[in-house]
Design brief:
The complex is a heterotrimer of chains A (648), B (145) and C (174). With 648 residues, chain A is α+β, with helices and mostly antiparallel strands. Chain A is built from 19 helices and eleven strands. The termini of chain A are far apart. Classes of the chains: A alpha+beta (648), B alpha+beta (145), C alpha/beta (174).
Chain lengths: 648, 145, 174
Amino acid sequence: MIPELGQAALVVALALALYGAFAAGISGARGTATLLQSAQHAAVGVFALLGGAFVLLTYAFLTFDFSVRYVASNTNLGTPFYYRITAVWGALEGSIILWGTMLAAYTVVVILTQRERAREFYPWVLAVMLGVLSFFLLVMTVAAPPFQRLSPVPPDGRGLNPLLEDTGMITHPVALYLGFTGFTVPFAFAIAALATGRVGEAWITLTRRWTIIAWYFLSLGLLIGGWWSYHVLGWGGYWAWDPVENAAFMPWLTGTALLHSVMIQERRRMLKLWNLALVILTFSLTLFGTFLTRSGIIASVHAFTQGAIGAFFLGFLALVVLGSLALLAWRWDALRSAGQLDSVVSRESVFLLNNVMLVAAAFTVFFGTVFPLLSEAVRGVKVSVGAPFFNQVNVPLFLSLIFLMGVGPLIAWRRASRENLRRNFVGPILVGVAAAALFWVLGVRSALAALSLALTVFVTATIVLDLARATRARLRAGESVPRAVGGLLVRHNRRYGGFIVHLGILVIALGVTGSQAWSVQTETTLRQGEVAQLAGYRIRFDGLAGNEASNHFRVVGSFTVTNGRATPAVMRPAKKFYPQESSPIAGVDYHLGLREDLYIVLGDFARDGSHATIKVQVNRLVSWIWIGGLILTLGTVLAILPERRRPA
Amino acid sequence: MTRHRKFLIGGAVIAAALGYMIYAGVTQSAVYFVTPSEIQAAPVAGKSYRLGGLVAPGSLKWDPRTLDLTFTLTDGKASVPVRHKGAPPDLFGEGRGAVVEGNWSPDGHFKATLILAKHSEEYKAPHDAGTGYRELMKSLRKAGS
Amino acid sequence: MTRLWRWLIPLSALPVLVLLGYGFRLNPRDVPSPLVDRPATAFALTTFEGQPVSLESLRGKVVVVNFWASWCTPACYEEAPVLERGWRAWRDRGVTVVGVDIQDTAEAAQRFIRQFDLTFPNARDTSGRVSIDYGVYGVPETFFIDRQGRIRYKHVGAVTDDVFRATVSRLLAD
């Protein structure tokens, strides 16, 4: 019942989406209002059907309906309740239907909010969104159907990949996909701008919030992915430059560039072509990311199953890229700048440099990721580049970006006078240099770490300076400090929201610097009662115990940890044995702290519990990465608040 | 010099710098995929390799005290002795495929710095069907008491 | 920019797209079985009906050795009918199908055989040695052995009618 119902819903949705896309497109070209209405109805219908299919699939998971092949592959009678829900998007077919459902929801929001505000663009925007939906529905009905029937119905399912039984995997795909699909809206507006010839600032103003929200969810998805990698995978790291990670990072980089370059177009009417190209590139990279992880052309620890789906994605990617770039070429003449870059020492120039660095980083990541393909195609040799390549090229780029983060918001538009430079930067630069000297005195010997920290201090100083100056001006008007600061934040929420986001990035940079420069680890085998020592911690092996959970067995090691200061703690890293998996999954135990995290992984152990091999890590400052994420959230919320017209 | 020219030159400088950094990065961190036959034929000391093959049954030796892991990787034609410091990762065992990353030691063995595990949806692996784990739990409970 | 030069913009994306398309011809996830073209390791097992089955006794035939388990859903469930069909269609043309049940209980395995009405010889790998000898990493895995006793192809995942027919015809023609 369910398989047929679900599949039918998807087929009808596909027909509606195709119809709606054409109807909206024709309406855009001819101005026929009735067709537009009809397309709108079709879009709502697609949302209802797709949403309904998604709910149906979830229902099948919750009721152990193993007649649906996808359910049987990803869950079994022992899977806990909440993981049965997240298992819906735990594998290929489910993730595509999740993507589609989000896209359909976004389309409805666009209908509700843009119908009146963006009359000229609206038909084209709707056409593009329904067009993209059609593609994903096509994939769902042909290449990766979630509602395939399994017959005969097996008595039990296979089970969820145990690595996915984690809170991180509940939120990580959802956040990431909200980000990916979110970028479809600015892209649709860009195409609408090109189609109508209105390539001025209008499309940018309309999509400002969409871009920020999509960018935020992408950032959140990346951070949660790092957190999941850190506390589940047992290697103590949060980022490995794995092709799948890179696939999400590239659109984030170009998306960040876009967030900044649109400000130049708003202010100076420049970079029209650049902004359109950047949106097209970002959206294409979101498709490319999915292509990369689904097609099997790049070997990765995350690799999913191959099949025809790769060809589908490549075909659609080609259509999107070639089509959008052709539109760009067609409207070339209208894309000339109204303004000009007056001076190299100006905010425009800094933003431009910011964009160049970000796009260069995105290119580097792209190059490194497809390098195995390239080398095999050109030289017939199978080569890949590992983490050292990405770090080597990207670290200087990121450090430059941090520096620019301090300069950009304070430097003047058009042409910065000497006075402007002196007022804004002499102080922070001195503070930064003093900080570097202080770090040296405190024992920091890594030049890279010292530079990174000094730059962080410099940028913080510029933010504090700007805030202090603006607050002082309001204090003169007789306000109290809290009201002055609060008023500033609300009145200029875009600017200060941006500052807080920058602060969040700085805090993340702090965490990354600390963990890369000062983390230590060791691996050792302990007999019962023996003690391992690392970075002031004493870890004593007490013993092993076994117990059963609903869908797995676990062997838990007991370790008493002391470090002279705090009270002793007991840590219990485990090895989880899932019957459907060939080998155990590590269960890491960790003790998080602001200064450092203690991290223990249970490796090999003796069956009689007499000895255990553990890997111990003391990871420094990692918690600041997650704190930075929280700050990022606050800054984003502030930045997207509706603007107040009157002074607060 | 016109402004236009300045930008072109600036752009070219940045592109050249980036190109150089990428080139340096690639040559320094390139890792070559080889099979046991290929590396036996022409091993180059100091070059980074990724060696893939089957862990020869009976060749696996693990000493928990010294953390020395030794085994032989074979592709049916040639065999390569591999040494690694550290516990074998999950998904690793005799008679199974494995990929190791490291370099060739002048002593005639492959020094692995990383053993890579592949997690695939399609694979379903043999398991103890519960009986093996029950024995394990029993022996641990005995040891713990 | 003159009218024609602007069309370089979309064209510039083509090399990258072609490169990605080229990627399909390669298959980096292929961990090629080092056992291909090597003599298949001998085995001697007892079927669920109590009959002996050994690789030696099947020399001269094309042998399809399929490793399966009753708990392996959905793939083993999908390929069981395929193997049975293949067995019935090709047994008179010099092809044998042997199923090896690994890491399973006898009752569950026999239930599986009854459910799919399998008539080709199925035996339990009680010692676990056979799956190790064949480097079996997961189930289902199917090995196609030629008439000289060499492993010629290893199929990972559920076997389809097309794969069965194509491989078996190729090995018979050799």
